[in-house]
Amino acid sequence: MNITVYTGTPYPLGATWDGKGVNFALYAENAEGVDLCLFDDEENPLESVKIRIQERSHHVWHVYVPGLKPGQLYGYRVYGPYEPENGHRFNPHKLLIDPYAKAISGTIQWHNSLFGYIIGDEQADLSFSTEDSAPYIPKSVVVDSNFDWGDDTPPRIPYHRSIIYETHVKGFTQLHPDIPDEIKGTYAALCHPITIDYLKKLGITAIELMPVHHFIRDAHLANKGLTNYWGYNTIGYFAPDVKYSSQGTIGGQVTDFKQMVKTFHKAGIEVILDVVYNHTAEGNQMGPTLSFKGIDNASYYRLTEDNKRYYMDYTGTGNTLNAQMPDVLRLIMDSLRYWILDMHVDGFRFDLASTLARELHEVDRLGSFFDIIHQDPTISQVKLIAEPWDIGEGGYQVGKFPPGWAEWNGKYRDCLRDYWRGADSMLGEFAERFTGSSDLYKDDYRSPTASINFITAHDGFTLRDLVSYNEKSNWANGEDNNDGESHNRSWNCGAEGPTEDPEVLKLRDRQVRNFLTSLFLSQGVPMLVAGDEFGRTQGGNNNAYCQDNEISWLDWKNADRELLQFTRQLIALRKDHPVFRRRRWFTGLPIKGIGLEDIAWFLPDGKEMPDENWSHDFAKSLGVFLNGHGIRSTGSKGQQIVDDSFYIIFNAHYEPLEYIIPPAKYGDKWIKVLDTNEASISKQDETFLPGETVVAESRSVVLLRNQVSRKPAEE
Question: Which one of 225, 269, 329, 567 is most buried, by most CB atoms within 10 A?
């Protein structure tokens, strides 16, 4: 077929429709030739038109094709040397996904042709496959970027008022009895009025979605009848995954996603994306050739210096994106800006973020990636959250990211788990974690909100399983239970797994409430994993990444309604009282004009904690006074914020303890607000005066309030 084409422009990269035709632009620095392949429809596996791109500007190949419209399917074939030992894996027999594709038409059908080498050949990846992969790989889609956003406005909720809810698009609604069957597991279901109402009543302010960039189902999982459920296997950094679309495959997923964001914003909920810019789905030298590997392997990936046949692997997935390369950095930045400006998302959680910081081999906290983000007027203004580690040497970087970043605080998680399971950990560390981890963030001029506090996350045990299993039960993953965390930093509460023993169940329930209470009363930003608020279980599976089934999906039918109500009330308590979500650090010094410390720590006898107890005492109990006058912050209208004061008793001891109420200068009358020995938070009329005794049950939290006559000012 003859078709008229024009030179086009090298920017923007990707496929851009202007109402009259489409401009295609592809970065491929080491390529010797590029074909643009056009496809009639999904049913036709072979291209109907193949256009040799003649124009090349600054390593970008570009062409303009008039008459093309949104919905057009396309891909690339790229020519160049096949020299794996030199880092080059060009193979024009492989149809390639556009790295800038705004939508991808479907899912991969695994076939030997998807690999650049001959499967089973003695030379392995040094051999050269001539099988055409086009019938088995999804096609890139030209999209129409127009969307009626109306008066959509980002909620822009400050960190100190944020409560993050980590969830999976499909898993959240797949079993929900009130969601229409035809949309279960989709973007549309996630923003259905039923789910919006649930999230609003729960009290969360931001939903953090596990990866929605188009990702691949790994071949080895497909062969075992499993799938990559979590999605940390990206192949399209601009494309919302088609598997969560309710509108079909030819671009409908883009509209679906935008409508979801618009609906969340209308409800005052932010949307944060879990993004995986550290590696791709193409794996190592034995992996498939789907996109980057065939377009310009030597540019896109970190290769070993002594033999460029092999890949640097800081992620445990086979490869690492080469964020040292300017054009790869541009890809990441363009992707981030696209999701902010075109898709209106409110922030990102960066998977294995230490990998992005690596300049050479060591982690450089002020690497080019962070420099570029810091100066970018768009990206620097949204929420940026790091998973501050990778598996490489020196990869554990908690507390070492630059100002402007928040971090998943792995030290908070480990400390809180140790404390409540009764491990021999120092009270000093517990105090640090509870008050925002100043030892990690204060010296860098960061605030307590740099700490994203969590007890559980998508990887590992659910909260219910954390207190129910000493050993993982990952047999369904097909790896002989050898995958996942080998050590459970929890306490099994008297029995392993399911039990009907009422005392064991009561203790487990209390431990769950202890964890939740600690989380929502701590300084920093709390993150709750979907389902933990109502006792979700995965049957002891602590690595359910490949389980797209009832193991991972939220079981709404068997939700613990009493625990759900407790969590709702706990979140409401945090939101009602600024003293639990300060923007500045505690000082431990008397407040000017008040003469009383902003925070004080007590022993059970009502006396302040002596210094030696912090570093030499393995005691499992302490009292904490939080001064509501000590917020040292003003509201939006310039007035001083004054809150109630609180006294919190933490008892991780295996026996009940008697606590004496501190002297009257700290409060003249204390009202019990919460006791995790009870299954619910209710209005309490039990009061205590200075010098009186409060009994804290074994492994429990008691919260007391000293009410002020003035209510907290609006922040």
Answer: 567
- Give phi and psi for 450, each to the nearest 5: -70, -20
- 377 has pLDDT over 80: yes
Compute φ and ψ for 448, nearest 5 degrees.
Answer: -55, -25
Dihedral angle over CA of 162, 168, 174, 178, nearest 10: 10
State yes or no: pLDDT of 298 exceeds 90.
yes
Read off the pLDDT band of 683 (50, 70, 90). low
Characterize 126-140 residue by residue with b for buried, 16 or more Cβ atoms within 10 angstroms of its Cβ, and e for exposed: ebebebbbbebbbbb
Are the CB atoms for 202 and 195 separated by under 8 Å?
Answer: no
Contact residues for 584 (Cβ-Cβ < 8 A; gap 6+): 447, 448, 631, 632, 633
pLDDT classification of 165: cutoffs 50, 70, 90 = very high
Write out pLDDT tens, residues 437-482: 999 999 888 999 999 999 999 999 999 999 999 899 999 999 999 9
Q: Report d(CA 605, CA 471) in Å as an integer.
A: 38
In sequence order, which residues have a C-beta less than 8 Å from that of residue 647 and are 6 or more positions away?
623, 624, 625, 626, 661, 662, 666, 667, 670, 703, 704, 705, 706
490-504: per-residue pLDDT in tens? 566 666 788 889 999
Determine if the peptide bond prior to 12 is cis (ω within 30°): yes
Instruction: With CA atoms as reference, report the closest residue to 552 among 175, 164, 165, 186.
Output: 175
Do 505 and 467 form a contact (C-beta atoms < 8 A)?
no
Residues 693-713 as b/e (b if ≥16 CB within 10 A, e otherwise) read ebebbbbbbbbbbbeeeeebb
Q: How would you list the strands of the sheet with 687-688, edge to edge?
A: 599-602, 621-626, 645-651, 700-706, 670-675, 687-688
697 near 677, Cβ under 8 Å?
yes
- 246: β partners: none
Q: Which amino acid is located at 311 in the chain?
A: Y
Residue carrying structure tokens 């994993």: 529
Say whether 387 is catalytic: yes
Structure tokens at 1: 């077929």
pLDDT band, residue 634 (cuts 50/70/90): very low
Tokens standing for 173? Answer: 């609604």
| List 35, 313, 346, 351, catalytic entry | 351
For residues 631 and 643, is the Cβ–Cβ distance under 8 A? Answer: yes
Q: Which of 387, 533, 597, 644 is catalytic?
A: 387
DSSP string across 173-204: HTT-TTS-GGGTTSHHHHTSHHHHHHHHHHT-
Instruction: Using DSSP, state whether 125 is helix, strand or coil.
Output: helix
End-to-end CA distance of the chain: 65
The residue whose two tokens read 């998943």 is 408
Q: Where are the alpha helices (DSSP H) in 387-437?
A: 410-421, 427-434
Question: Which of 124, 137, 126, 131 minimizes the C-alpha distance to 92?
Answer: 131
- Tell me the C-alpha distance between 216 and 524, whole Å: 35
Active-site residue flag, 501: no
> Cα 514–519–520 angle (5° rounding)?
105
**Residue range 305-358, pLDDT digits in tens:** 999 999 999 988 999 999 889 999 999 999 999 999 999 999 999 998 888 877
